[in-house]
Amino acid sequence: MAKISVFGIGYVGVVSAACLAQDGHRVVAVDVVADRVAMINAGQSPIVENGLGALIAAAVESGTLSATLDAQAAVHATEASYVCVGTPSNRDGSVGLGYISDVCGIIGRALATKSTFHSVIIRSTIVPGTMEDVCIPLLEAASGKKAGVDFGVGYYPEFLRESTAIADYYDPGLIVFGALDQPTFDLLILMTLDLPCVAHQVDLRTAEMVKYTSNAWRAVKVTFANEIGNIAKACGLDGQLVMRLLCGDKKVNLSAHFMRPGFAFGGSCLPKDVRALRQLAQAKDVAAPLMGAVLQANEDQIERAAKMVTDTGTTSVGLVGISFKAGTDDLRESPLAELAARLIAQGLDVQVYDPNVSIAHALDADAAGRGNDVVPDLRARMVPTIQALIDTSALLLVGNTYADATGPLSRAMQDQPMVDLTRLQAGIVSNGTYQGICW
Length: 439
Ligand SMILES: NC(=O)c1ccc[n+]([C@@H]2O[C@H](COP(=O)([O-])OP(=O)(O)OC[C@H]3O[C@@H](n4cnc5c(N)ncnc54)[C@H](O)[C@@H]3O)[C@@H](O)[C@H]2O)c1
Hints:
The chain has 439 residues and is an alpha/beta fold. The chain contains 17 helices and 13 strands. It has two domains: 3-204, NAD(P)-binding Rossmann-like Domain (Rossmann fold, 3-Layer(aba) Sandwich); 297-436, 3-Layer(aba) Sandwich (Rossmann fold). Helix 12 (289-311) crosses helix 13 (335-345). Residues 7-13, 30-33, 36, 84-87, 99, 102-103, 106, 124-125, 158, 160-162 line the site of nicotinamide-adenine-dinucleotide.
């Protein structure tokens, strides 16, 4: 069993402290507010949270949980510290790091006089880069020691929800953490071993980003459901029933489908239907700002790709794929066709490889309704093979992936500039003349 000091006796800290203690770890909770420390030591919960009072009372009674104002003593008496202090918004909306900075200084000074290894594990919500740019430098400056060598550092975001905090602690849905050093990784693996989720080990920045992504996604879900509910009500419908039915589809609607960063959505349905829903809301005098933002963000993603191409200064582009997704010849509202049109309008020479659209052309099956209406002279721009595209283009712009194209494109990217909207190879990241749109 581990000895853990928990900094911050707020919602996250007190739940963590009580649950760690219940699991048999020896926990010292630390706060700057004397009342909170006193309440813990009296076996009482300083917050209202289902089941927490009983947990704290039992842990204090059994001697596994205590609280103190003495941060230095707490660090010296434990092998790791969980930092759970608040990170409230600054005036401009940026993350407030005042409490985190204070605690890093306090723990760092305690580490200066501690001879045994100690891990500092931040659990507060902090934007990517905070560990490396703020926490670690402060800990090193205050301790005079090297992070990852003389003391351990980890970032382990908390996902609990108030009101179900204890249940969430034991089944968080997602466990992700990063650490600078193996002892801290080992400790976090040990601390999460009995929880019913995979423990994802990542770098510090990724762990920081996942926490914000999780909360932003939760917020978007609430807002989406509310917007649908408002429109449904205006149509005389039960929005909760509509959302319940939608959520019954675990194949596409509530799944990882469409949750992979990359290029814009398009095709014959999504753009027109979002537009129609927005117009319906307007006609019913219901605000639907999310629908408007979705269309604007999609438009911005096309512009982002266009800028990535024009920023290279190239005048010759080989576009891989022009239908709205691989596996179809459908060009209706294809964001790739829109992207090609913008590049052509800016004077770039754009050639296209798309095996499905080529088949449609060969069959003369690209008539109105399914065809291209934005790219001038599309037929003349089509090349028959991926190799022909590679050989005649200065920059390759990968919009769709095709089985016969992946190998030649992977070889070509070694010495040919590429803008990739699909992620041609798993894990590849922007580097030199290879640029991925979201990686
Ligand atoms: N509340 C939630 O549901 C929740 C869930 C997941 C993550 N988080 C994140 O966890 C962090 C903590 O949130 P919270 O709601 O528990 O905050 P909180 O405001 O309830 O508690 C923070 C505690 O830290 C104490 N503190 C401040 N400076 C201190 C210091 N130098 N030493 C020791 N204690 C100090 C405060 O006195 C307070 O008791 C935030 O970053 C938050 O975004 C919160």
